[in-house]
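[audit] Reproducing an earlier prediction to check determinism. Same input, same settings, fresh worker. If the tokens differ from the archived copy the diff job will pick it up downstream; this log only records the rerun itself.
[audit] input (681 residues):
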Amino acid sequence: MSTKEITLIAGTEETRKTLLDQLKGYIGEYTHMKSYAIDEGITESIQSDLIIVSSDLVYGEAAPYLEDYNRHKIISVRRTINYNFIDKLLFIPEGTEILFVNDVAETVFDSIAKLKEMGINHIKYIPYYPGIKGVKPVKIAVTPGELDKVPSFVEEVIDIGPRLIDMTSMTEILRRLDMLEEKADEVSQKYMGKIIQLGKRLVESTKETHRFNRNLNIVLEGVNDGLLGVDTKGEIKVSNGNLEKIINTPIPLTMGKNIKQIIKNRELIHFLLTHGESNNMILNIDNVDILINKFFIEEENLIVTTFKNIKETMDMERQLRRELVKKGHIGKYSFVDIIGNSEGMKNKKKIAVKLAASELNILIEGESGTGKELFASAIHNASPRRDGPFLGVNFSALPEDLVESELFGYEEGAFTGAKRGGKKGLFEQADRGTLFLDEIGDISPKIQARLLRVLQEKEIMRVGGSQIIPVDVRVIAATNKNLVEMIENGKFRQDLYHRLKVLYLQLIPLRERKEDIEDLIQCFIRQSRKNHAMIKDEVIQKLRYYNWYGNVRELKNTIEYMLAVCEDDVIKLNDIPEDSFFQIKLFDRFQQQDEDEIENLGNPEELYFILNMLYESMLSHQLLGRKQIAQMARENGLNLTEPQVRQRMNILEEHGYLLKSKGKAGTKLTRKGKRAAERQQ
């Protein structure tokens, strides 16, 4: 049998693709097919063994290209609902009003009639086509591929795809191609196969619905609260077993019964069934206080009510608070964990201990890596709130759109992706404890305003909520920014600054307490996997000369690097990273000025020697006199007398490298002198 040529003409491109796929699925292997869409334009005269047009309307529009054509070779097919998507309609709730949208009135009413003939008559169809007037606005629309014709007031669109060629027309196509007797059974089997696939999908969907309902019942019975759902007439739609215990009723709350037949408390019945009144009440049942909350689901005409035993709820809240502590919402560090015996660090710890005894807010300022979170945790653990939770948030690590919901929590439905039941924010979770707000200088003006209100009123309101929630939280804020400068530039609220800075702690950078470096190094080694590793003294001395602009965090990273690359668990000089590893500030200009200046002062080798000796004595907390310097100079090959040392020191003092004092204070290096000495190490 020779291959026949078929031409399909449809109104739209989407209909063309859908019908072409259908025809190929049934008779594609026996024919050669061409296809056109009126909307896309036809530019040639059409000739084929059989021309299939998607409707009488399309036939009229295609007629100019079919002039004088044998009418026997043209068939205008009948169309039916696309069974591939019919299951979408079966799960629309009974009685729901839906808009049925198509291009013209004829196809709209024909499609609705077809759906009802198929038994899909549990929903109420409202016809809609371009030009129709007085249409009732509804939320759901169903359309066979005509998405662009759906009106804007519709919220949900169900696309069931363009209508398909029905089996009557498919049989006629086979007859026109002289294939009916030979191919009818095969085409029929393919059609039945499609119907069976649809049936399987429906069976799977039904199984899934049963599984969902079974799991839902398990969840309802597992909820600690009592749950009740009734319609406005009082007929029970859903309930759980815990409700029967809470309201102490001997009669089962069976679905379909009226609540008035079971509950005899008139006050409760009035509250449950009266729409528009208060949504909360407290009722005493058998000497037990019950908190009752209700809300109305308009789409389902359903009143849902929850019942809570107030005493049990409060006990659970206390247990939850204890669990927060157990789960790590605690201050991990105390003052004994803060390494440093320098005078500066001892003084800071002494001040922090005193601040901990207060309930007032604290602002901690310091460069990145100076231990702001460490001090905040230690303050919490030394405070009267030590048994409460300690939670922290770093504003520089949070996207702006998440900060508000993280701090204050949100109600269910507050935004896309919000969890069912809503979520507590950090202020609620930290109730009766401490909240650490790190990098406070990074928050937006909007969050600054909300935070100020919380600090003033001691209460919060969740995102999307209307309920005021009191909170008892001590705030410790921290920043590495200059907030005063930000206030002057209009980037930080002055009133918020003073609410945060009731108490204040300024932390010391590591370069100003270098005597703590060795203790920190040994601590980091003990905390590592190579806790038995040794570090050479010359390595420690070398590390003490660097200014550690990344502070303790940079020092720790450096030690971890050296532990990773050292051999035989011994850290040597060649294990120190290259210069590019370190965070070095831009002081090249000052360095060059200092070098040029000392070179021009005469005897630069001797001047540098004196600076180095004074620097080392400073690190070892020893006083060094001119006589000792002169003696050390001779031991190192420099012929310096004590008067010469005095003269060189006068030169260094004159140019700002050192400061001479009488008595026990001795001679001290200035910052400029320290910088010059450190370059020589």
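[audit] rerun output stored. Observation attached for the diff report: The first strand starts at residue 4 and ends at 10.
[audit] end
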